[in-house]
Amino acid sequence: MPQTPKTPNFKMTARNVSVSYGTKLAINDVSIDVDQDEVTAFIGPSGCGKSTFLRTLNRMNDTVASARVTGDIKLDGQDIYSPDMDVVQLRARVGMVFQKPNPFPKSIYENVAYGPRIHGLAGTKADLDRIVEKSLRRAGLWDEVKDRLTDSGTALSGGQQQRLCIARAIAVDPEVILMDEPCSALDPIATAKIEELIHELRGRYAIVIVTHNMQQAARVSQKTAFFHLGTLVEYGNTSDIFTNPHEERTKDYITGRYG
Ligand SMILES: Nc1ncnc2c1ncn2[C@@H]1O[C@H](COP(=O)(O)OP(=O)(O)OP(=O)(O)O)[C@@H](O)[C@H]1O
Ligand SMILES: [Mg+2]
After folding, report:
1. Measured in angstroms, how far is the CA atom of residue 46 from the centroid of ligand 2?
2. Are 236 and 243 within 8 A, CB to CB?
3. Looking at the domain assignment, is residue 98 inside a domain?
4. Domain ABC transporter, which positions (predicted)?
Protein backbone atom coordinates (compact mmCIF):
# COMPACT_ATOMS: atom_id res chain seq x y z
CA MET A 1 0.00 0.00 0.00
CA PRO A 2 1.37 3.43 -0.84
CA GLN A 3 1.95 5.55 2.22
CA THR A 4 -0.27 8.59 2.64
CA PRO A 5 2.02 11.58 2.24
CA LYS A 6 2.40 13.54 5.41
CA THR A 7 0.96 17.05 5.41
CA PRO A 8 3.93 19.39 5.51
CA ASN A 9 4.23 21.55 8.57
CA PHE A 10 6.84 24.15 7.76
CA LYS A 11 8.66 25.78 10.63
CA MET A 12 11.11 27.78 8.54
CA THR A 13 10.99 28.85 4.93
CA ALA A 14 13.89 30.30 2.98
CA ARG A 15 13.30 31.97 -0.38
CA ASN A 16 15.93 33.06 -2.88
CA VAL A 17 18.64 33.28 -0.27
CA SER A 18 22.10 34.33 -1.43
CA VAL A 19 25.15 34.95 0.72
CA SER A 20 28.39 36.58 -0.28
CA TYR A 21 31.60 37.17 1.60
CA GLY A 22 32.91 40.40 0.11
CA THR A 23 32.71 39.79 -3.64
CA LYS A 24 32.66 36.00 -3.35
CA LEU A 25 29.23 34.41 -3.73
CA ALA A 26 28.98 31.44 -1.33
CA ILE A 27 25.24 30.68 -1.57
CA ASN A 28 23.30 31.40 -4.72
CA ASP A 29 19.50 31.68 -4.72
CA VAL A 30 18.57 28.87 -2.35
CA SER A 31 14.95 28.19 -1.43
CA ILE A 32 14.02 25.50 1.06
CA ASP A 33 11.40 24.63 3.67
CA VAL A 34 12.27 23.12 7.03
CA ASP A 35 9.56 20.89 8.42
CA GLN A 36 8.66 21.09 12.10
CA ASP A 37 8.40 17.35 12.53
CA GLU A 38 11.36 16.16 10.53
CA VAL A 39 15.12 16.09 10.56
CA THR A 40 16.57 17.84 7.53
CA ALA A 41 20.11 16.93 6.46
CA PHE A 42 22.39 19.20 4.42
CA ILE A 43 25.01 17.30 2.44
CA GLY A 44 27.55 18.24 -0.21
CA PRO A 45 31.29 18.56 -0.82
CA SER A 46 33.49 20.72 1.34
CA GLY A 47 33.18 24.43 0.59
CA CYS A 48 29.79 24.16 -1.13
CA GLY A 49 28.15 26.49 1.40
CA LYS A 50 26.37 24.17 3.85
CA SER A 51 27.59 25.96 6.97
CA THR A 52 27.07 29.35 5.37
CA PHE A 53 23.46 28.53 4.57
CA LEU A 54 22.85 26.90 7.96
CA ARG A 55 24.08 30.06 9.66
CA THR A 56 21.58 32.20 7.76
CA LEU A 57 18.80 30.38 9.62
CA ASN A 58 19.66 32.03 12.94
CA ARG A 59 21.63 35.00 11.64
CA MET A 60 24.96 33.70 12.83
CA ASN A 61 26.41 35.25 9.65
CA ASP A 62 25.71 38.64 11.25
CA THR A 63 28.89 38.04 13.23
CA VAL A 64 30.98 37.79 10.02
CA ALA A 65 31.78 41.36 8.94
CA SER A 66 32.13 40.57 5.21
CA ALA A 67 28.98 38.42 4.96
CA ARG A 68 25.95 39.80 3.16
CA VAL A 69 22.68 37.88 3.10
CA THR A 70 19.84 38.60 0.68
CA GLY A 71 16.51 36.88 0.21
CA ASP A 72 13.80 35.99 2.63
CA ILE A 73 13.83 33.69 5.66
CA LYS A 74 10.83 33.19 7.87
CA LEU A 75 10.34 31.45 11.18
CA ASP A 76 6.65 30.72 11.73
CA GLY A 77 5.92 33.24 9.01
CA GLN A 78 7.97 35.97 10.72
CA ASP A 79 10.83 37.57 8.75
CA ILE A 80 13.97 36.86 10.79
CA TYR A 81 15.94 39.59 8.99
CA SER A 82 13.38 42.26 9.77
CA PRO A 83 14.86 45.24 11.70
CA ASP A 84 12.58 44.59 14.65
CA MET A 85 13.68 40.97 15.07
CA ASP A 86 15.52 40.57 18.38
CA VAL A 87 18.59 38.57 17.34
CA VAL A 88 19.38 37.31 20.85
CA GLN A 89 15.83 36.01 21.11
CA LEU A 90 16.06 34.53 17.61
CA ARG A 91 19.19 32.54 18.51
CA ALA A 92 17.40 31.14 21.55
CA ARG A 93 14.49 30.08 19.33
CA VAL A 94 16.86 28.72 16.69
CA GLY A 95 19.70 27.15 18.66
CA MET A 96 22.98 25.89 17.29
CA VAL A 97 25.39 23.06 17.98
CA PHE A 98 28.83 23.25 16.39
CA GLN A 99 31.30 20.78 14.96
CA LYS A 100 33.71 21.12 17.83
CA PRO A 101 32.04 20.82 21.23
CA ASN A 102 32.41 24.26 22.83
CA PRO A 103 31.25 24.17 26.45
CA PHE A 104 31.89 27.33 28.46
CA PRO A 105 34.81 27.02 30.91
CA LYS A 106 32.27 26.79 33.72
CA SER A 107 30.59 24.01 35.66
CA ILE A 108 28.30 21.51 33.96
CA TYR A 109 25.39 23.10 35.83
CA GLU A 110 26.33 26.62 34.77
CA ASN A 111 26.72 25.62 31.13
CA VAL A 112 23.05 24.67 31.07
CA ALA A 113 21.75 27.30 33.54
CA TYR A 114 23.37 30.28 31.80
CA GLY A 115 20.87 30.64 28.95
CA PRO A 116 17.68 30.22 31.01
CA ARG A 117 19.08 32.73 33.51
CA ILE A 118 19.86 35.46 30.96
CA HIS A 119 16.53 34.87 29.21
CA GLY A 120 14.69 35.05 32.53
CA LEU A 121 13.14 31.59 32.17
CA ALA A 122 13.51 30.58 35.83
CA GLY A 123 11.86 32.44 38.69
CA THR A 124 13.61 30.61 41.49
CA LYS A 125 16.68 28.46 42.08
CA ALA A 126 14.38 25.43 42.19
CA ASP A 127 12.99 26.36 38.76
CA LEU A 128 16.49 26.64 37.42
CA ASP A 129 17.45 23.28 38.93
CA ARG A 130 14.45 21.74 37.21
CA ILE A 131 15.35 23.25 33.83
CA VAL A 132 18.95 22.04 34.17
CA GLU A 133 17.87 18.51 35.04
CA LYS A 134 15.22 18.37 32.31
CA SER A 135 17.66 19.63 29.67
CA LEU A 136 20.40 17.22 30.70
CA ARG A 137 17.89 14.36 30.69
CA ARG A 138 16.66 15.29 27.23
CA ALA A 139 20.24 15.43 26.04
CA GLY A 140 20.80 11.93 27.41
CA LEU A 141 23.51 13.11 29.80
CA TRP A 142 21.84 13.36 33.21
CA ASP A 143 22.76 9.92 34.52
CA GLU A 144 26.40 10.46 33.65
CA VAL A 145 26.73 13.87 35.30
CA LYS A 146 24.12 14.13 38.05
CA ASP A 147 26.71 13.54 40.77
CA ARG A 148 29.25 15.95 39.33
CA LEU A 149 27.27 18.99 38.27
CA THR A 150 29.90 21.32 39.75
CA ASP A 151 32.73 19.81 37.70
CA SER A 152 33.91 21.82 34.72
CA GLY A 153 32.08 21.19 31.45
CA THR A 154 35.44 21.02 29.74
CA ALA A 155 36.42 18.02 31.88
CA LEU A 156 33.88 15.80 30.12
CA SER A 157 34.71 13.52 27.20
CA GLY A 158 34.17 14.89 23.69
CA GLY A 159 30.89 13.03 23.26
CA GLN A 160 29.66 14.16 26.66
CA GLN A 161 30.69 17.74 25.88
CA GLN A 162 28.67 17.62 22.68
CA ARG A 163 25.62 16.36 24.59
CA LEU A 164 26.23 19.15 27.13
CA CYS A 165 26.15 21.63 24.24
CA ILE A 166 22.88 20.08 23.08
CA ALA A 167 21.52 20.39 26.66
CA ARG A 168 22.61 24.03 26.65
CA ALA A 169 20.71 24.63 23.39
CA ILE A 170 17.64 22.80 24.71
CA ALA A 171 17.63 24.70 28.02
CA VAL A 172 16.28 27.90 26.49
CA ASP A 173 13.34 26.03 25.02
CA PRO A 174 14.24 26.41 21.34
CA GLU A 175 11.96 25.67 18.42
CA VAL A 176 14.67 24.75 15.93
CA ILE A 177 18.10 23.19 16.50
CA LEU A 178 20.82 23.62 13.89
CA MET A 179 23.71 21.17 14.06
CA ASP A 180 26.84 21.69 11.99
CA GLU A 181 28.64 18.34 11.72
CA PRO A 182 27.96 17.59 15.39
CA CYS A 183 29.65 14.19 15.28
CA SER A 184 32.71 14.87 13.18
CA ALA A 185 34.98 15.08 16.24
CA LEU A 186 33.45 12.03 17.93
CA ASP A 187 34.17 8.30 17.97
CA PRO A 188 31.57 5.83 16.63
CA ILE A 189 30.04 5.14 20.06
CA ALA A 190 29.63 8.82 20.93
CA THR A 191 28.31 9.36 17.39
CA ALA A 192 25.70 6.63 17.84
CA LYS A 193 24.55 8.32 21.08
CA ILE A 194 24.09 11.66 19.33
CA GLU A 195 22.19 9.99 16.49
CA GLU A 196 19.93 8.25 19.00
CA LEU A 197 19.38 11.58 20.68
CA ILE A 198 18.42 13.20 17.37
CA HIS A 199 15.76 10.48 16.96
CA GLU A 200 14.41 11.25 20.41
CA LEU A 201 14.38 15.00 19.87
CA ARG A 202 12.64 14.79 16.52
CA GLY A 203 9.09 16.12 16.68
CA ARG A 204 9.84 18.27 19.69
CA TYR A 205 12.22 20.50 17.76
CA ALA A 206 12.70 21.04 14.06
CA ILE A 207 16.25 19.82 13.43
CA VAL A 208 18.69 20.65 10.65
CA ILE A 209 21.97 18.76 10.54
CA VAL A 210 24.97 19.24 8.29
CA THR A 211 26.92 16.04 7.76
CA HIS A 212 29.62 14.62 5.51
CA ASN A 213 28.60 11.14 6.52
CA MET A 214 26.12 9.74 4.00
CA GLN A 215 25.13 6.88 6.26
CA GLN A 216 24.42 9.36 9.01
CA ALA A 217 22.22 11.48 6.75
CA ALA A 218 20.35 8.34 5.70
CA ARG A 219 19.97 7.18 9.32
CA VAL A 220 18.86 10.38 11.01
CA SER A 221 17.01 12.48 8.45
CA GLN A 222 13.70 12.41 6.63
CA LYS A 223 14.61 15.19 4.20
CA THR A 224 17.95 15.71 2.49
CA ALA A 225 19.28 18.76 0.68
CA PHE A 226 22.28 18.33 -1.60
CA PHE A 227 24.38 21.45 -2.08
CA HIS A 228 27.05 21.92 -4.73
CA LEU A 229 29.08 25.06 -5.49
CA GLY A 230 26.73 27.28 -3.52
CA THR A 231 23.53 26.04 -5.11
CA LEU A 232 20.87 23.69 -3.85
CA VAL A 233 20.96 20.93 -6.46
CA GLU A 234 18.28 18.66 -5.08
CA TYR A 235 15.99 18.53 -2.06
CA GLY A 236 13.55 15.81 -1.16
CA ASN A 237 12.76 12.77 0.92
CA THR A 238 15.97 11.22 2.19
CA SER A 239 14.97 7.80 0.88
CA ASP A 240 14.46 9.21 -2.62
CA ILE A 241 17.70 11.20 -2.59
CA PHE A 242 19.69 8.13 -1.65
CA THR A 243 17.94 5.53 -3.77
CA ASN A 244 16.62 7.48 -6.71
CA PRO A 245 18.24 10.90 -7.11
CA HIS A 246 17.01 12.96 -10.04
CA GLU A 247 20.19 14.87 -10.64
CA GLU A 248 23.40 13.42 -12.01
CA ARG A 249 25.47 15.52 -9.59
CA THR A 250 23.57 14.13 -6.61
CA LYS A 251 24.11 10.59 -7.86
CA ASP A 252 27.83 11.20 -8.32
CA TYR A 253 28.17 12.63 -4.82
CA ILE A 254 26.26 9.97 -2.94
CA THR A 255 28.05 7.20 -4.76
CA GLY A 256 31.35 8.77 -3.74
CA ARG A 257 32.46 9.86 -7.18
CA TYR A 258 33.52 13.23 -5.86
CA GLY A 259 33.57 15.09 -2.60
N1 LIG B 1 34.02 33.80 7.20
C2 LIG B 1 34.24 33.64 5.91
N3 LIG B 1 34.86 34.59 5.19
C4 LIG B 1 35.08 34.42 3.85
N5 LIG B 1 34.71 33.35 3.16
C6 LIG B 1 34.10 32.36 3.82
C7 LIG B 1 33.82 32.45 5.23
N8 LIG B 1 33.21 31.31 5.61
C9 LIG B 1 33.09 30.55 4.50
N10 LIG B 1 33.62 31.19 3.42
C11 LIG B 1 33.67 30.66 2.04
O12 LIG B 1 32.37 30.35 1.62
C13 LIG B 1 32.33 29.12 0.90
C14 LIG B 1 31.40 28.14 1.60
O15 LIG B 1 31.97 27.80 2.87
P16 LIG B 1 31.18 26.94 3.94
O17 LIG B 1 32.00 26.95 5.17
O18 LIG B 1 29.79 27.43 4.03
O19 LIG B 1 31.20 25.51 3.24
P20 LIG B 1 30.80 24.08 3.81
O21 LIG B 1 29.94 23.44 2.79
O22 LIG B 1 30.25 24.21 5.19
O23 LIG B 1 32.20 23.33 3.84
P24 LIG B 1 32.73 22.19 4.85
O25 LIG B 1 32.03 20.96 4.43
O26 LIG B 1 34.20 22.13 4.55
O27 LIG B 1 32.43 22.63 6.24
C28 LIG B 1 33.78 28.64 0.82
O29 LIG B 1 34.32 29.05 -0.38
C30 LIG B 1 34.44 29.36 1.98
O31 LIG B 1 35.80 29.58 1.72
MG1 LIG C 1 30.90 23.54 7.05
Report:
1. 7
2. no
3. yes
4. 12-254
Which run of H or of E encompasses 240?
helix 238-243
Range of the domain at 201: 10-104+170-254
pLDDT in tens, 105-132: 999 999 999 999 999 999 999 999 999 9
**Quick one: which ligand is closest to 46's CA?**
1
**111 lies in a domain?**
no
The CA distance from 51 to 96, in Å, is: 11
Ligand 1 centre and the CA of 52: distance in Å? 6
CATH number of 46's domain: 3.40.50.300
- Structural domain tally of the chain? 1
What's the mean per-residue pLDDT of the chain? 95
Long-range contacts of 61-68 (CB under 8 A, 24+ apart): 61/19, 62/87, 64/21, 66/21, 66/22, 67/19, 67/20, 67/21, 68/19, 68/20, 68/21
- What b/e sequence results for 53-88 when a residue is b if at least 16 CB atoms lie within 10 Å of its CB, and e otherwise? bbbbbbbbbeeeeebebebebbbeeeebbeeeeeee
C-alpha 117: how far from its chain's center? 23
Q: Determine which residue's CA is closest to atom 9 belonging to ligand 1.
A: 52
pLDDT: is 252 or 5 the higher one? 252
Assigned domain for 227 exists:
yes
Q: Is residue 174 part of a domain?
A: yes
